[in-house]
Amino acid sequence: MTLNNATxxxxxxxxxxxxxxxxxxTVGVVILIVYVVAVLANIINILLIxxxxxxxxxxxLLICNLxxxxxLYTSSASPTMIGLLVAGVKTISYVPCLIQMFxxxxxxxxxxxxxxxxxxxxLLAISCPFQYYNYLTNTRTLVLTYSLWIAGCGLAAFCxxxxxxxxxxxxxxxxxxxxYPALIRTTxxxxxxxxxxxxxxxxxxxxxxxxxxxxxxVGIIFFVKLSSNNDKIKMGSTCLNHLIVVICYYFPIFxxxxxxxxxxxxxxxxxxxxxxxxxxxxxxxxxxxxxxRTKEMKCKxxxxxxxx
Length: 308
Description:
Blueprint lengths: L11 E4 L8 H28 L6 H30 L3 E3 H34 L4 H4 L2 H19 L1 H6 L8 E2 L6 H5 L6 H35 L3 H33 L6 H26 L1 H13 L1
Helix pairs in contact: 1-2, 1-10, 2-3, 2-5, 2-10, 3-5, 3-8, 3-9, 9-10, 10-11
């Protein structure tokens, strides 16, 4: 499906997604601060869970997995954007660009999987409180997590696998980093074909994981109605943490999808802004939600401050 025969051999790409941005240094510093806070907060979450044996439970293992996903997801693109905006590094070599695209897509897929599994975990904890630790042991949680990572790697590999064979006609990326649409636009191929291909896959993943989460909450609401008032408060508090995280991740994605569906053509700047919000938003919110709203982790942090 090649449309243009004037192919070129690309050794590095020029990132042009921020060319029309006003005050790039300011935006870069903001992204840098948010990125550092997100990474440090998630690392603290991971260390708290790893070093406290009382937190070696399925729910906290899943929180730990989410923190790893958040670090991977935000680190896939943020350093490139920071380097461009703050240091003026506008180029990225071909192979690192493909690796970045793979890591970014892996983070995207794993974020969906992690949130879906955590919804199922809350459903299981509320519907079967006495059998919960029999059904979802630490070993089963780890096996499930590893399986999802393997599946995520397979799905993420689809993007570089379709880009590598294509000839390139351009070396300028119109977006803020090496994501799939940016790389496809540099090729000589029929862009719409590949856009439709990835859109179908993305829609399936979004639809499947979001519907799974919604069905889990339908089940949770059903069992909460059967519980006492005290149990309802505890269950509501537990589920609210997860619900905040789900909204932070899916809201920008659905906004983009709805705007596109009703015919609103997003500029590159608007699209870049939504993508940056999708990458940085959940990664910085998630660790604070689980640190400040989860009783056991909050107590652990309070004890650490009291000792110091």
